[in-house]
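Q: What residues go here?
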């Protein structure tokens, strides 16, 4: 059944949120609802994690930048295969037969690796209904790179806070500007993913420190169900490598413990990921129990 020339392109919904906040649970619930009557929409769920570099490619990236702690493991912008992501999303938009990649986070004792292609799911194939809705979730989905002046100003403010504010518990101030700059530069290329979205749900943590507890719970479950996963120490190292992206230096940001990527980009995301276009983004603020405390349309 050739479906590529029939019907409209699918609707692309993005879901952003810190590690462990409940992105996977939310997108599973949305997909389940959309597939049921009265909607009866054929839906596929993807994660930006599905597009992580292979284990070997990640090792090579880390070796090229041995002094940059932010990319010694998967997670940051630059550790995804954006060519693969663009190919998959473009194929879905064109309603062509598409193989959906997968990533095994338990491989290599928690370092992770992409699964073999013969295990990738196939959608829009022969005798399959065409996909109506694509749901893509990811912790950095919707982030936009800062210009050099903004990045330098934010970094300098973080360093100043590190040196003179006893209450500073962020991570940006403990990273070198050139290391943060490499990640920020790579983030420019992620616009090609964000620009595919028709709408975005932003799951925002009431207290960013919950990310540690949530991610520890995730990895403990992974070790129990799959027999391998990150240790608690590795979870802290992983989070410490990323917290600089999520908050961008309001006072609430300066009390964050780690994950430096959150520290740079969350304030901007709260204002909207779609260049001033209103009504396409929903912000849900969640408490420690992942209960919704506030809902705002952006």
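A:
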């Amino acid at each position: 059944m050739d479906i590529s020339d029939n019907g409209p392109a699918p609707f692309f919904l993005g879901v952003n949120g810190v590690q462990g906040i409940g992105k996977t649970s939310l997108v599973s619930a949305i997909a389940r609802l959309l597939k049921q009557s009265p909607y009866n929409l054929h839906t596929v769920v993807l994660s930006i994690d599905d597009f992580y570099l292979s284990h070997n490619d990640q090792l090579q990236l880390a070796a090229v930048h041995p002094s940059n702690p932010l990319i010694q493991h998967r997670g940051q912008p630059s550790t995804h295969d954006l060519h693969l992501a663009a190919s998959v999303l473009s194929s879905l938009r064109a309603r062509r037969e598409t193989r959906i990649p997968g990533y095994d986070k338990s491989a290599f004792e928690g370092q992770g690796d992409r699964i073999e292609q013969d295990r990738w799911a196939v959608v829009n194939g022969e005798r399959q209904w065409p996909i109506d809705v694509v749901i893509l979730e990811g912790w950095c989905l919707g982030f936009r790179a800062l210009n050099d002046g903004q990045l330098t100003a934010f970094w300098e403010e973080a360093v100043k806070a590190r040196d003179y504010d006893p209450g500073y518990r962020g991570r940006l101030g403990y990273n070198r500007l050139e290391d943060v700059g490499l990640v920020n530069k790579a983030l420019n290329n992620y616009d090609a993913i964000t620009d595919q979205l028709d709408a975005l749900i932003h799951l925002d943590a009431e207290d960013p420190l919950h990310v540690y507890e949530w991610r520890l719970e995730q990895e403990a479950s992974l070790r129990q169900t799959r027999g391998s996963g990150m240790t608690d120490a590795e979870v802290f190292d992983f989070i410490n490598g990323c917290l600089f992206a999520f908050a961008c230096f309001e006072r609430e940001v300066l009390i964050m413990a780690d994950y430096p990527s959150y520290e740079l980009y969350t304030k901007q995301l709260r204002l909207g990921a779609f260049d001033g276009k209103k009504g396409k983004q929903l912000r849900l603020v969640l408490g420690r129990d992942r209960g919704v405390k506030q809902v705002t349309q952006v």
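A: Context that may help when evaluating the design: The beta strands are 11-17, 43-47, 98-100, 103-104, 113-114, 121-123, 133-138, 199-205, 281-286, 292-297. The first strand starts at residue 11 and ends at 17.
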